Amino acid sequence: MTSAIQCLVVEDEPLAQNVLKKYIAEHPSLQLAAICEDALDAQLKLNQIPIGLIFLDINLPRLSGINFLKTLRRHPAVIFTTAYPEFAVEGFELDAVDYLVKPFSFERFLKAVNKVMAIKKDATNEEPTDESIFLKADKKVYRVLIEDILDLEALGDYVKVSTPKSQHMVNSSLKDLLAELPKEKFIRVHKSFAIAKNKIAFLEGNYVRVGEKDIPIGATYREEVYAIISSKTK
pLDDT tens digit string along 89-133? Predict the structure, then answer.
């Protein structure tokens, strides 16, 4: 497993500082390097510490987070944190990885960090067998290998993520969780189910066998599912 990502929090509100400090401490692949209350202090820290991720507030004293980012010729991954959603477009134009609107949940924080992890994996060309996603379930954060995931099932406000050895109940919609996974590896087969393409054992009628489970195929998704199977058998 790769070493922890050093994080810099640039935030002048004590409450927001404490929230980010708590969230970072709960994530097994993040480590808080420093907290700065303004952009000028943050610039000093960037010169002193090998920072991999900045949580950057927009409404800062002396220099806004957006203007601060514009001054940097090169910068680590950036996740903007702010109470003002109208700045989101400009933030993304500056290549921010994500944009968290206060107050944000740990689940939303985790989704943003998963984006950072995916980008860093691509940049370092890690072996695909080590490709993973972090999921919050049972008040813990689990690192789950994407290759191990069999299927995802929507259950109300949660998604059950199944692997051969475990199941995790994640507070998310199926659509949002699928967006964090490689599109080429998973397919939605029903309004309540998505499956790993390479874990399909066989199709029979309106069901697909994945692992030891028969998963229904919805009428809306039937054509796409059969097209995948057909392409594998040619």
Answer: 565 567 889 989 999 999 999 999 999 988 877 665 544 446 889
DSSP classification of residue 108: H
Residues 6+ apart with CB under 8 A from 163: 144, 145, 148, 149, 150
Which residue, 100, 124, 148, sits at the end of a domain? Answer: 124
Quickly state the pLDDT bin for 66 (edges 50, 70, 90).
Answer: confident
138 contacts 160 by C-beta, under 8 angstroms: no
Cα–Cα–Cα angle for 155, 161, 165, rounded to 5 degrees: 135
**Residues 221 and 180 occupy one common structural domain:** yes
124 vs 229, residue with greater confidence: 229
Number of structural domains in the chain: 2
Residue 103's SS3 state is coil
Structure tokens at 124: 């370092």
Predicted TM-score (pTM) of the model is 0.69
Question: Domain check: are 144 and 227 in the same one?
Answer: yes
Tell me what the pLDDT averaged over the chain comes to.
88
Domain that holds residue 226: 132-233
Q: Give me 30's structure tokens.
A: 């993040």
Task: Scan for tokens 């640039």, then name that residue.
Answer: 10
CA gyration radius for the chain?
20
Within 8 A by CB and 6+ apart from 194, the residues are: 151, 152, 174, 178, 186, 187, 188
H or E element that contains 128: none
